[in-house]
Amino acid sequence: ENGERCFLASSGVAAISMVLLSLLSQGDHMVSTDNVYGPVRSMDSTVLQRMGITTSYVSGHDYEAIEAAITPATKILYAESPGSLLIEMLDFRALAEIAKKHGLIFVVDNTWGSGLIYTPLDLGADVSIIAGTKYVGGHSDLMLGAVVVKGEELIKRIDKNQYALGYSISADDAWLAIRGVRTMPIRMQQHADSALKVCDFLASLEATQAIYHPAYQGDPHHALWQRDCKGSNGLLSVEFKGSREQTRAFVDALEIFYIGYSWGGFESLVQWVRPEGLGNHSYTSEGIREGQHQLIRLHIGLEDVDDLIADLQQAYERAFGG
């Protein structure tokens, strides 16, 4: 990450809470991009608001709206890129300029990049948060969060608060993370190569409306990915034209893919994303908002990619027809 200090926590959500509880106080305000990981909103409504801290959610591409949301009480600009549902790539360079202009701390969720294929601190971020549960661990047997920081003042603030709040991990978890890091470059490349082949397959299906994967040439933010990233991974989403019933039938028919949220391990996962969960995301298409389209998120694991495509093919035929 090219940071100066790393603090560890027992999960990605714990890493997020460590940062926000260290850097925000009663009466403070945070501006957040609206594509952030769902538990950020849960922490806002459950903890931060109770502490007298407010948050405004704005499209990460609408720079005028972001600046308009900033008040004298704003302390943090918080962003995630790519977002974890619609895999929406943001321009961290542009967001960093806004944060610097207004004297804000720029905090980012870099779980997608995991410190290997994307380095936000090099793009102007002050704090980078990683859910090491995912690609750092890589085997779905570890819960871990990491907070990577640069700047002496920020390091001191987070250091004091993480100690006071009792954030820590076990020696076994640290060992598992070290094990995972040793193979992460090889694993990540395999995930990425297979994901692009799956994107090509999905693009051939009649029901496919859109593919969300920045490394895929058809993604609207592919050029941004080319400029800022050093690689890719196995996470993608596909928007299907069809009903909830068809999409659920597709998920249920898959035999190799497991239903699950916590991507980044060796196995392939599928999640039907409920439209209600996308209502706050400005990047959500009208087709999804109106219920005419459905979103499926896939994590392409380390299984043979031809087997994965065959599994997707048979599930598609059963749910949508040939």
Q: How would you portray this structure in words?
A:
The chain is of the alpha/beta class and 322 residues long. The chain has two domains: 5-174, Type I PLP-dependent aspartate aminotransferase-like (Major domain) (Aspartate Aminotransferase, domain 2), CATH 3.40.640; 184-320, Alpha-Beta Complex (Aspartate Aminotransferase, domain 1). 39% of the residues lie in helices and 20% in strands. The chain has ten helices and twelve strands. A seven-stranded mixed sheet has the order 1-7-6-5-4-2-3, sandwiched between helices. Helix 2 links the parallel strand 2 (29-33) and strand 3 (54-58). It is globular, with a radius of gyration of 19 Å.
Give a brief outline of the structure.
The chain has 322 residues and is an alpha/beta fold. The protein is built from 10 helices and 12 strands. It folds into 2 domains: 5-174, Aspartate Aminotransferase, domain 2; 184-320, Aspartate Aminotransferase, domain 1 (Alpha-Beta Complex), CATH 3.90.1150.10.
